[in-house]
Amino acid sequence: MFYVIDTHPLVWYLAKAKLPSKLDEIFKASERGECIIFIPTIVLAEFYYLSEKGKIELNFQNVLNAIEKSSNFLIVPLNVDVIKMFSNIAVKEIHDKIIIATAKLLNAKLITKDKEIMKSNDVDTIWD
Q1: Which residues are CB-neighbours of 108 under 8 A, at least 6 positions away?
Q2: What are the tens digits of pLDDT across the range 10-29?
Q3: Structural contact between residues 6 and 117, judged by C-beta atoms closer than 8 angstroms
Q4: pLDDT tens, 37-75?
Q5: Is the model's pLDDT at 128 over the cut of 90?
Q6: How far apart are the first and last CA of the chain?
Q7: How would you classify residue 24: left for phi > 0, otherwise alpha for psi between -120 and 50, otherwise beta?
Q8: Averaged over 73-80, what is the pLDDT?
Q9: CA dist., res. 46 & res. 98, Å (int)
Q10: Cβ–Cβ contacts within 10 Å for residue 26, how many?
């Protein structure tokens, strides 16, 4: 199974925050090598911003190094195939369009708590 992750669920997972049991199981499955979680580069950019502004206590460089070494968390760059999908996505916010388009391109479910994304039905979402 393939998943794409939004910024806040990634932060909460890395900060070891309590997550809904369904998400906790997905992360454990990924750690066991049973599924892959894709991380769009915009999610990493948002993570960097949160780290630099002191809004989270996670060190961006340490997290990036761990992700790059992982075989179960893979970084997906923004590319022209993602951009071509924008016009077919109802959500207006550009960061969300990138995340949704990445999930659609990879035929993956999107791990997000973003209500606008969930209501859009642009992609299958998972939260609880």
Answers
A1: 2, 3, 4, 38, 102
A2: 999 999 999 999 999 999 99
A3: yes
A4: 999 999 999 999 999 999 999 999 999 999 999 999 999
A5: no
A6: 17
A7: alpha
A8: 97
A9: 12
A10: 23
Calpha distance 113→85 (Å, rounded):
22
Which tokens sit at 39?
């991380």
Q: CA dihedral in degrees (66, 72, 75, 81; nearest 10)?
A: 180
Instruction: Flag whether pLDDT at 77 surpasses 90.
Output: yes
Domains and CATH numbers, the chain: 2-126 (3.40.50.1010)
State which amino acid sits at residue 71.
S
Instruction: For residue 43, give the H/E element and its range.
Output: helix 41-52
